[in-house]
Amino acid sequence: MADLKIIKDISIIHLLALKGYQPKSIKNSNYWYLSPFRHELRPSFKVCLRLNRWYDHGEGVGGSIIDLIMRLHKINFHDAIIALSKDEFKTYNVSQKKKSTQSSKITVTKILPPQHQALLNYAKRRCISSNLISKELKEVHYQVAGRSYFGLGFQNILSNWEIRNQGFKGCIGKKAISVIRNDMKNLKIFEGFFDYLAFLELSSGPINSDILVLNSISLVNQSFKFLNKYDKIHLYLDNDESGKKTSKSLINSCKNVCDKSHLYSQYIDINEFLINGKNDEHKIFRSEYFK
């Protein structure tokens, strides 16, 4: 039997390169790819160079290079080991000493109203106004391994922070869904908090519902316990395979669920629709919303 430690140290990044996959962006030690498991327009497949591990945010699965080969080729563990024992991979051993959990722990240092110009400019590029950012988000400062960072923060039901800035997308603490209660009998569900903000920009009117933001499509199961109380549920998820799959699951599991993604069917999500959609398309969206 091959040495599992040696096999698990084979670089996932080099393996993907051998198979013709190149990263769409590199942020610190994270390499972002279009998922090798499905067609998509926006990269959701991450490889952490430091840990040599992968994670597919679209499906909520990840693991070692062995798990990747098993999933890519639909083979079992034994056959994956045989495939990775070939000579073509032997020069791609990462052999990196992993940092301790303590050294990589993220610690929040302060929470402010959004005011840093870099964050406001980032939001502006996504067509979200500074007034809306100030109302809905916080400016979260945090440290990782002694280095200081900051980003726009959106709190989940565990009081942890979903963080976004120009170079980082992640969560400080355990990921969970976010729920905004307005004492309504209707609910709108979004995939990420920038989709929720884009909806607010597009609607330009009062919010006549409660809000649920998944923060990751993989967290949809956390939402089910909140859904039975609502008379009507509208879905504003992404127009990709995972978004459609999740919408179908919610429609089949709950009553009075309506998929609203047809309103931005030519775009991957609502935020892209806000940025790139035409004025007459935006008008149609608003007229549908206020029916």
Automatic annotation (TrEMBL):
SMART domains per record: ZnF_CHCC
Keyword tags: Metal-binding, Zinc, Zinc-finger
Organism of this sequence: Dokdonia genika
Sequence ranges assigned to domain Zinc finger CHC2-type in this UniProt record: 31-85
InterPro entries in the cross-refs: DNA_primase_Znf_CHC2 (IPR036977), DnaG_primase (IPR050219), Znf_CHC2 (IPR002694)
Gene3D superfamilies the record matches: 3.40.1360.10, Zinc finger, CHC2-type domain
Coiled coil segments of this chain: none
Protein name listed in UniProt: Toprim domain-containing protein
